[in-house]
Amino acid sequence: MPAARRFPASFLTKSPLSIEVILFNTLFFSFLIGVSASGLMAQSETLSRAERFKKQHDWKAPLGVPLLLSGNFGELRGNHFHTGVDLKTMGREGLPVLAATEGRVSRVKMSPWGYGNALYLEGPDDLLTVYAHLGAFAPDIQGWAVDQSYKGRTLGLDAAPSGEDAFWVKAGDTLGWSGNSGGSGGPHLHFEIRDATTQHPLNPLSGWMDKADGIPPSLPVLWLETQDRLQAFPIPTTDTIRVDGTFRASMEAFDRLDGASNICGVRSLEAALIRADGTGIWRHQFVLEELDFGVNKDMNAHAFYPVWSRQRKQVHRLHRLEGNRLAIYGPDRNEGWAVLGHGECARLICRAEDAAGNVTEREVILQGGAPKGVWEKKSSAFGAGTIVAKVTSASGQSSQGEVELSWPAQSFFEEAQLSWTPSLDALRFAMGPAEKAWRKPVHVEWAFPQPSGVWSTTGAMFPSEPLAADRWVAVLMKGDAVETAVLAEVKDLAWHMEIPNGGTWEMRRDTVPPKVLPFYSGTPLVKGGDAVWYLDDDLSGIESVELTFDGHWVRSVWDPKRNMITYEASDGRHVPGQVHDVVLVASDAVGNVQEWRRPMTWPEGH
Ligand SMILES: [Zn+2]
User: How far is the centre of ligand 1, averaged over its atoms, from the C-alpha of 69 (Å)?
Assistant: First the structure.
């Protein structure tokens, strides 16, 4: 009951019936109503782009099985918004992948990373569809792609078949088979719809694909942030939330779809902070209908980074950071900071909608005053030798003693305090801010330890040997595992490195070459004639791989997530019954080289 919220009486009588509130809400919701009614703002009043397309052209679902989504358009992923839908393939590979429209295959990609094996299909009406993480392409496309790889001698391929090589298909034709290639976290089909001219991805659930969904979005947690602290508030709550000083808000919002338990993203969200007298303090709205690869990594400014970076929860800021260039927001730009006087109340309303039109609305009451409960401190104190620099949108540099930091313009999405603290052993340093997203790396130049320095900082009895000056990397550790490694080149008696985000970094030398072994047992040869090796490198990572038979270059398929590299027998570069001198050479990013060499004979019939 509202009375339990200990609300000023005036607030209860005035709200929600005051003229200002109604006006405010009308303006506020009209932005999204306008969008949902017509699909996209630029379109005709009556039909969405998908509806117009389907009236004139064939449209087929890209899989023949019922559509179950393990990911939807616009959900937060790594450092970007997800630009398509992830369709479940019953946990396995090899399901036929069908052309959604008629058209021409305009791009063929094979890569160990990202989309893996992917096809781009240019259809009518400037519509492009993309099919990623495939296991194999249809035979004619596969044959052409393998030929292109041999011509270019490349580990991957990104090519546009044209002229006599062009592949034309009808809607429903088999383009290839589903797989788990590239950066896929398990077998599925990543399906994307784009405007061919702008290359902007469009929301496939906005009229293109039919997906029944009766589950409304969840808005489970409100995050409040003051200048130096932050706290989570589970909602719904009947408690008034006390907040002291200037604050801004973020909301966890996600959706579940019928038939799947995984968490997906919401399609739109609107929020407003409204005073007791009905006047608006700020409002904020976004809709994930169309994205833009050019600014897609500004997702880091959209997400509430302190929680996103640590817990990977779909928490959206209810304000726009200065450097955020995304075009997904309504007309009201707000910086989000607000302050409530002691005892003053305000309503924070939040409304999320999924692609099927299910809506969830939540409201919490905030009151100015000393906060209850324990708020988590955003950053800790700095230690000895710390350098601290204020970073605005301009480029700059700052130096002190043994270190110099320099940063390009727009390094952060808002003003930030850059800090650098060395450890006593002079082989580690902590860099902040850790609670803000870094848009560009900061260049660190740090004096390379000289023998006398190593001697005094390690407390050794005698001066040690000079440290070797090659093959250094700076690594960011997550527990015992290396999360990120960047090269640290030694020149002019200093390490030079591009540090991409905050945390504790360790200086290490990578002197170990990559590991190359038969994947399963003594021989890389497996049933069917493929040859499979295990390939891995610690610290700096694999930089290049080359496979040759009797000195001739042979295509190999590298799957870094499974540490697997494969020669596919269907390439036909071996002669059964004949001895081949097989050499696999792998190098890591600092130049350590491993060579695996063995005479191999394929049995007859393979
Ligand atoms: Zn995907």
Answer: 10
Ligand 1 centroid to 206 CA: how many Å?
A: 17
CA of 264 to the centre of ligand 1 (A): 11
Among the listed residues 460, 434, 433, the one whose alpha carbon sits nearest the alpha carbon of residue 449: 460
Measured between alpha carbons, how far is 519 from 190 in angstroms, rounded to an integer?
Answer: 28
CATH no., domain 60-202: 2.70.70.10
Q: Output the CA 85–ligand 1 centroid distance in Å.
A: 6
Centre of ligand 1 to C-alpha 529, Å, is 32
Cα distance between residue 439 and residue 413, in whole Å: 7
Specify the pLDDT at position 36.
43
Chain centroid offset of residue 260 CA:
22
Q: How far is the CA of 133 from the centre of ligand 1 (A)?
A: 9
The alpha carbon of 83 and the centre of ligand 1 are apart by a number of angstroms equal to: 7
At residue 40, the pLDDT reads 39
Residue 361 Cα to ligand 1 middle (Å): 28
How close is the Cα of 236 to the center of ligand 1, in Å? 32
* Average pLDDT for 382-404: 86
pLDDT tens by residue, 391-400:
999 999 999 8
What does the pLDDT look like over 421-470, one tens digit per residue? 988 777 899 999 999 999 999 999 999 887 654 545 555 555 556 778 89
Give the ranges where 205-244 is alpha helix by DSSP (H). Answer: none
Taking a C-beta distance cutoff of 8 angstroms, is the pair 209, 59 a contact? no
CA of 239 to the centre of ligand 1 (A): 39
Q: Where are the domains of the chain?
A: 2-34+214-376, 60-202, 387-509, 515-601
Whether 4 shows a pLDDT value over 80: the answer reads: no
Number of Cβ atoms within 10 Å of the Cβ of 270 = 23
pLDDT (tens digit per residue) in 513-568: 999 999 998 899 998 999 999 999 989 999 999 999 999 999 999 999 999 999 99
Per-residue pLDDT at 16: 37
Q: How far is the CA of 73 from the centre of ligand 1 (A)?
A: 9
Task: State which CATH number among 2.70.50, 3.40.50, 3.30.230, 1.10.10 fits the domain covering 2-34+214-376.
Answer: 2.70.50
**Coil/strand/helix, residue 310:** helix
> What confidence score (pLDDT) does residue 212 get?
79
User: Domain 387-509 belongs to what architecture?
Assistant: Sandwich (2.60)
Q: How far is the CA of 408 from the centre of ligand 1 (A)?
A: 31
Q: Which CATH architecture has domain 515-601?
A: Sandwich (2.60)
pLDDT higher than 70, residue 8: no
Distance, in Å, from the CA atom of 238 to the CA atom of 1, rounded to the nearest integer, reads: 8
**Given the DSSP bridges, would you call strands 359-368 and 241-243 parallel, antiparallel or unpaired?**
parallel
